[in-house]
Amino acid sequence: MSVQEGTLLHTPSKEAIEQTNLSDYMNWLTKQYGLSFANYHELHNWSVTEHEAFWESLWHYFEVNPEATYQHVMDSSKGFMHTTWFQGANVNYTEYIFRNMNPDHVAVKAYGEKRHKEEIVWGELYARVSAVANGLKALGVERGDRVVSYMPNIPEAMVAMLATASIGAIWSSCSPDFGARTVVDRFIQIEPKVIFAVDGYRYNGKKYDRLDVVKEIKTSIPSLEHVIVVPVFQDALPAEFNLWSTFLSDYRDGSPIPYESVGFDDPLWILYSSGTTGPPKAIVQGHGGIILEHMKSMVLHKDLKSEDVMFWYTSTGWMMWNMVVSGLMMNGTVVLYDGSPAYPDANVTFKLIEEAGITSYGTSAPFIMACRANGMQPKEIADLSTLKAFSSTGATLPPEGSQWVYEAVHDKVWLNSVSGGTDICSAIVGGIPTQPVYAGEIQGRVLGVDVDAWDEEGNSLVDEVGELVIKKPTPSMPLYFWNDPNNERYYESYFNEYKGVWRHGDLIKFKDDGRCQIYGRSDSTINRGGVRMGSSEIYRAVESLEAIKDSLIVDISHPTREPYMPLFVVLEDGFVLSEELKTEIITSIRQNVSPRHVPNEIYVIEEVPRTLNGKKVEVPVKKLLMGVEYEQAVNEGSLQNPHTFNYFKQFHRQDA
């Protein structure tokens, strides 16, 4: 029998609570500052009311740089989005990762569909990072230059990222399943000097040659001076490409990593989050903010220790890959997997738990629901006894998904659902190891994040769905958007709705004890498997086809249903939506955007609803299809063709 939303599934024992990093931190606060908290809720309240004291405590607790001095913890005198942190203190992300390494302990375990298992100890990881860092410097890469990657989730990508950060250069990454145009739209903005790439990749048992895409990227981005390729399929590469193995061996001389000491708010990497119009937004995040935020996340909210083995299924185009790299901060072990989570069957990553000794496993909510729908019982095909934590993100995990984890995976595991965003490269609400787990719910607000649900007037809501807002800055929020004069796009993205308060773009509902649910995006951003694209990128791929006159796409999430993304098309005269045309549409999206953003269904409509100034109306359609009453979802006075909603009202009734 299925559990209901809010059904209690797991309560940590008193002994388990006492052994958490969170309890250790609370005890440390008592010893160092005389602070005492009866429970997590009191601790969280302190972390957002005494905001500076909280973040300063993490600086000392995590020993970010004991030798450094700083002028202030934070300075918001110029406004929320111009907040600076720990001004005067120097750090380096890569140096922090290697600070306490045990050279003989395994740092990375790598697996793939056709890849031989590889184990890399910390000493070897250090040597590879040193070689690539010195190689980049030999190519003329300097502090502030951009280095990019078009590689899957393989050790070479991790090594290249750590090497880039070590010398103060700025990293950015796209997954090789992204089409050339999607990659160029992102990288051309930031003018990279070097790209690391693969000539192809394997997924779901198939080979995908990407050498032509790499060539197109090279010719389309004038700033690219060097291409370094990890060969997957080719025996010989074009002369203009450098071979990874040669590059590595040429600069592997036993020298130390040439760390560049940078300011706390110096750029570390660039992630991408698309709006509905214009090029993808290039989000710049800093060394110190990521160190503090990711240590808080890994240590206090994921409860990772140096003996843990962490895995999260991800691609290099999703912020979760960056989080996996940061899993090294605990000087334990991270597990990489390159390939499909469903090939040769959906048990492949569960078998990794036994083979790699994984203690902390992460995946997406849609994958969990697919496993449940297929009647899978991972505990029957693998020894999952090492597993302590099971994490879920990418969408809301329905109650049935929570129940499946406890029945089919591990009945004693700590299930923690997480929701955050590329924008801060971390969680906003998520796991709390000292708290109970309830079906279909996220455990609560994470420390240091003053998050709330607001209505349109800025009133706080309890037990009602509202806009997710963050009322105070956090260190990993964007330093700025690349090439954004006067921070105009930055402001419009987060601060245009509620002046001086961050509007995240998600819908959320809190209970009075902090437990919550995410109801998907409140805007028209398409979020599939954690990879966000602007709808405009999909429209460009679809409307380039001869048969398509116009189109509309919406991404629909609901706590108790599978994510659903329908595409509505207006056909040119003389065309019908045949199976051949559907295949052509899907192929165009796969090749020009990504396979993740292929719609669930395609429907023909007569006309796309538009505003009075001609913009496509996406959010009202989305709200209507999510179950919002028509009068609340649609303002007919803002439309040039309100009659178009007759179709969507009927569509919703059929869908319901």
Automatic annotation (TrEMBL):
Limits of the AMP-dependent synthetase/ligase domain: 101-474
Which InterPro entries does the entry mention?
Acac_CoA_synth, ACAS_N, AMP-bd_C, AMP-bd_C_sf, AMP-binding_CS, AMP-dep_synth/lig_dom, ANL_N_sf
Query: In its keyword annotation, does this UniProt entry include Nucleotide-binding?
Result: yes
Task: Specify the domain of life of the species encoding this protein.
Answer: Bacteria
This entry's Gene Ontology molecular function terms read: acetoacetate-CoA ligase activity
Alphabetized, the UniProt keywords read: ATP-binding, Ligase, Nucleotide-binding
What does the record give as EC number?
6.2.1.16
What are the TM regions of this chain, as residue ranges?
none
Q: Where is the Acetyl-coenzyme A synthetase N-terminal domain?
A: 40-94
Protein family per UniProt: Belongs to the ATP-dependent AMP-binding enzyme family.
* NCBIfam families listed in its UniProt record: ac_ac_CoA_syn, PRK03584.1
Full protein name? Acetoacetyl-CoA synthetase
Organism this protein belongs to: Geomicrobium sediminis
